[in-house]
């Protein structure tokens, strides 16, 4: 979907729909089209119908929520953009080059964490990340790097010629009711300005919800927000289409 000036796009992360499914059907084979609920691909299609601008899914090495068949069905069925979050491993790089999502977002991954914690250290693994950016660019896939709002990480994203970054908003979200809130927001504002001055497209995500999103919009130069947990959670109460519409309405309010 094309973006009008000042519009901030919404990518909905449907991983946690799969988390609920896996809580019951973990041992069930899911590659034969069996009717097991909830289906993250159905959720993705409903998100699109409600105005989502893209669908984000994270195929984890341990396959704890999204399964390969979910990714392939999503790729085949959605009409917006598919953003594949993935670790910087050979398995996932080969997978992405075969799948050809519209974009990949490189994230850190460790087996212990429940969801992604902390940004990818692209300074510490610049050679590897640079190779992945080059391979994706060559294949026509946009790369985004999920990084903390740290000046050195942002400089490196530009040096590695990643077209996009996704600023990790988790520290801000965790600090929302605490003393560090203003400081963490200021870091995101500064990081977004730095990234924009380096001609990076600036996305943001992690921990954004219906309460903090309005303040998140004070971060300049935002292109897209990737939001998962809060939308999937609200869907339990109001349904996924209403949950997406509510978030879209909040994103539309800018001044
Ligand atoms: N962006 C990235 C890179 C993520 O890893 C996640 C979490 O999977 C999100 C956005 C969405 O975070 P949340 O579920 O907290 O909205």
Share of residues in strands: 15-25%
Strand order of the largest sheet: 1-2-3-4-5-6-7-8
Oligomer: single chain
Radius of gyration: 17 Å
Question: What structural class results from the helix and strand content?
Answer: alpha/beta
* Terminus-to-terminus distance: 22 Å
Percent helix, as a range, is 40-55%
Mean pLDDT, nearest integer? 93
Order of helices and strands: EHHEHEHEHEHEHHEHEHH
Bound molecules: pyridoxine-5'-phosphate
Mind describing the biggest β-sheet? 8 strands, parallel, barrel
Low-confidence stretches: none
Question: How many beta-strand elements?
Answer: 8
How many H/I helices?
A: 11
Shape: globular
Topology:
Layout: E1 9-13, H1 15-25, H2 40-49, E2 54-58, H3 68-77, E3 81-86, H4 90-99, E4 103-106, H5 126-138, E5 142-147, H6 151-159, E6 164-168, H7 170-175, H8 181-197, E7 201-205, H9 213-216, E8 222-227, H10 229-238, H11 240-252
Describe this protein with a few key phrases:
alpha/beta, 44% helix, binds pyridoxine-5'-phosphate, 255 residues, eight-stranded parallel beta barrel, 8 strands, single chain, 11 helices
Descriptive overview:
This protein is an alpha/beta fold and 255 residues long. The chain contains 11 helices and 8 strands. An 8-stranded parallel β-barrel has the order 1-2-3-4-5-6-7-8, surrounded by 8 helices. Helix 2 runs parallel beside helix 3 (68-77) and helix 10 (229-238) crosses helix 11 (240-252). The longest helix is centred in the last third of the chain and has 17 residues, at 181-197. It is globular. The two termini are 22 Å apart. The mean pLDDT is 93.
């Amino acid at each position: 979907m094309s973006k009008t000036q000042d519009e901030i796009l919404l990518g909905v992360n449907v991983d946690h729909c799969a988390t609920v499914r896996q809580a019951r059907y973990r041992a069930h084979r899911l590659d034969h089209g069996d009717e097991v609920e909830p289906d993250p691909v159905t959720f993705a299609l409903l998100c699109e119908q409600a105005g989502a601008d893209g669908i984000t899914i994270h195929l984890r090495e341990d396959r704890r929520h999204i399964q390969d068949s979910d990714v392939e069905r999503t790729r085949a069925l959605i009409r917006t953009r598919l953003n594949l979050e993935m670790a910087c491993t050979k398995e996932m790089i080969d997978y992405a080059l075969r799948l050809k999502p519209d974009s990949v977002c490189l994230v850190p991954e460790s087996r212990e964490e429940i969801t992604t914690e902390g940004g990818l250290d692209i300074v510490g693994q610049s050679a590897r990340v640079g190779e992945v950016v080059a391979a994706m660019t060559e294949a026509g896939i946009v790369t985004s790097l999920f990084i903390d709002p740290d000046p050195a990480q942002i400089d490196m994203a530009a040096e590695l010629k990643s077209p996009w970054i996704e600023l990790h908003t988790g520290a801000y979200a965790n600090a929302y009711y605490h003393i560090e809130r203003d400081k963490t927001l200021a870091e995101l504002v500064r990081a977004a300005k730095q990234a924009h001055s380096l001609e990076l497209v600036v996305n943001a995500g992690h921990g954004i919800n219906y309460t903090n999103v309005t303040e998140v919009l004070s971060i300049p130069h935002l292109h897209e927000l990737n939001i998962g947990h809060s939308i999937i959670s609200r869907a339990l109460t109001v349904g996924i289409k209403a949950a997406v519409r509510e978030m879209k309405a909040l994103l539309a309010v800018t001044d």
